[in-house]
Design goal:
Elements lengths: L2 H39 L4 H8 L3 H29 L1 H20 L4 H29 L3 H32 L4 H4 L1 H15 L13 H22 L5 H23 L13 H31 L4 H48 L9 H29 L5 H31 L11 H7 L3 H11 L1 H36 L21 H10 L1
């Protein structure tokens, strides 16, 4: 390339760098939308999947939970691999795998095939999610701009959470349950060429060899720990639960020791020595633990207890995500005014209040109660997540953005997976004993009904008559009781998060930063390749 051409390209790049950062943000938000929709679109389809595929209790948990389990296990692996080979490259590969796995899930004819497809979706999600945050951290070095970008990013996540149940409900009204997975394919077909054209390639420091052994140890350790928690949630307390828990915990301990010894670690664990970073990670885990489990249980309550259609269920959950969108868009201003400590602490307290308020839900519909409870719940949780994510990314050095993003997304998915297992186990523990002996109902039928509310309705339909109606009413009452117990447990966890948030900084420190990362326009990239 000649000197004149080089100077012209540099001038164009300097003039358009600011605008291009926001274009990159739009592409990253589209990536997040792809993952967020898939994380929630299945919630309203659980009853239809249960009716069609007849999964057992553990299989049903796997269908819902294997996606966050696999995704959480592989985030560190793909996050650090992206630092080596290019984050955009990993992102685009994730798009392709997401599309293939979505088609596989849509056409699944057994619970086992659906579980395998959801696992592949988790692999694709693990490729996509760390790249979005690490590229965002690099492209927006100024904390004020980055706070606004994270607010938009988190609002898009709320949009995905809103669109998922609504889209799933609409599709279930007109098509079979597998159609909820087909929505990923058009998003992938658009994201692949747009991402290839507009996203800049981004790599981290390449000092020393990539620790393949460490990456596999982290993946296997996280998988074992969450698998053990999952089996606990299904009521299994035998060797099948203890073995993966112990093996997973041992592998994570060995992973930590290995990273501390290495000159060039896969993940710089010294970041956890910073109170703001470690506290933010803990807050993300607790917030997601409460959110995902409650959303799943709420969807079952609305459909199976109140008898709402899937589309009506999605509309009832819509206020939660609209409130979350509002909190994300207002997050940057709130953070500047109140600081991370007060913002995250207040978000946890508001969410706990909303959860306690929702314990007034019973066997009859109360739209006003649910509207107020879901609005407070969505606003409080998004306020918490925004403050925690922003503090975590700002605390991490720019050269460690990939590792920090992987840790943040691992905590997000880990909290989601543990939340479903933990709150699901609390729900089962409160639901099942009430059906151990129902007057006028055979013992075998009562035992079968204790597995889940959907199975209780199926058994009641087979019994028919007075016995069937008695079993159906008893199951509904037990489910409502279990919902109340689960909500109270969630409120306690949220208050624990509020106490934890007191370790965050009081104010938002906006120190001087380096010049923004320059994002070349697609034409300039092509020019440089041609003239190189």
């Amino acid at each position: 390339m000649s000197g004149t051409t080089t100077a012209a390209a540099l001038r164009r790049r300097a003039a358009g760098a600011g605008a291009n950062r926001w274009v990159v943000l739009m592409v990253l938000c589209a990536s997040l939308l792809l993952v967020a929709v898939d994380a929630t679109v299945l919630h309203v389809a659980v009853p239809a999947v249960t009716e069609d595929l007849k999964p057992g209790g553990i299989e049903l948990l796997w269908i819902v939970d294997v996606y966050p389990l696999v995704c959480a296990s592989l985030l560190i692996l793909f996050g650090t691999l992206g630092d080596r080979v290019g984050r955009r490259r990993i992102l685009l590969l994730g798009y392709g795998l997401f599309g293939v796995a979505s088609a596989m899930a849509a056409l699944a004819d057994t619970a086992q095939v659906l579980i395998a497809a959801r696992a592949l979706l988790g692999v694709g999600g693990a490729m996509i999610m760390p790249a979005t945050l690490s590229i965002l951290r690099q492209v927006f070095p100024d904390r004020r701009e980055r706070a606004l970008a994270i607010g938009i990013w988190s609002a898009v996540a709320a949009v995905g959470a809103a669109v998922g149940p609504l889209l799933g409900g609409f599709l279930l009204e007109h098509f079979w349950w597998g159609s909820v997975f087909l929505v990923n394919i058009p998003l992938m077909l658009v994201s692949l060429p747009v991402g290839r054209l507009l996203l800049p390639e981004s790599k981290g420091a390449a000092d020393g060899p990539w620790d393949v052994v460490g990456a596999l140890m982290a993946a296997a350790g996280l998988f074992g720990v969450v698998l053990g928690v999952k089996r606990l949630g299904g009521g299994d307390i035998g060797g099948g639960t203890a073995v993966p828990l112990l093996v997973g915990a041992a592998l994570l301990v060995l992973f930590v020791r290995r990273q501390r010894r290495r000159k060039h670690p896969l993940v710089d664990l010294r970041m956890f020595a910073r109170p703001a970073f470690s506290t933010s990670v803990g807050c993300i885990v607790l917030a997601m633990l409460a959110l995902v489990g409650l959303e799943l249980i709420a969807a079952q309550y609305l459909q199976l207890v109140l008898g709402l259609s899937p589309l009506e269920t999605g509309l009832r959950l819509l206020p939660l995500t609209i409130a979350a969108m509002g909190a994300g868009l207002a997050g940057a201003r709130m953070l500047r005014r109140f600081g991370p400590r007060r913002m995250v602490c207040a978000g946890f307290c508001l969410t706990a209040f909303a959860v306690v308020l929702l314990t007034a839900m019973g066997g009859t519909d109360d739209p006003a109660l649910m509207l107020s409870g879901f609005v407070l719940l969505g606003f409080g949780l998004e306020t918490t997540l925004f403050g925690a994510y922003e503090s975590m990314l700002s605390e991490a050095p720019p050269e460690q953005a990939g590792g920090a993003a992987a840790i943040g997304e691992t905590s997000y998915q880990l909290g989601a997976g543990i939340g479903i297992a933990l709150l699901g186990s609390v729900m089962n523990a409160a639901y099942t004993p009430g059906l151990s002996s129902v007057p006028g109902v055979p013992a075998s039928a009562s035992t079968a009904a204790g597995h889940s509310l959907g199975e209780a309705y199926e058994v009641a339909g087979q019994l028919g008559g007075v016995a069937g109606e008695t079993l159906r009413e008893a199951a509904r009452n037990c489910f409502v009781h279990g919902l109340h117990v689960t909500l109270l447990v969630s409120a306690g966890l949220l208050l624990l998060g509020a106490v934890m948030a007191l370790r965050l900084p009081r104010t938002m420190n906006c120190e001087a930063v380096a010049a923004p990362v320059e994002v070349p326009a697609p034409r300039e990239v092509a020019e440089s390749r041609v003239t190189a």
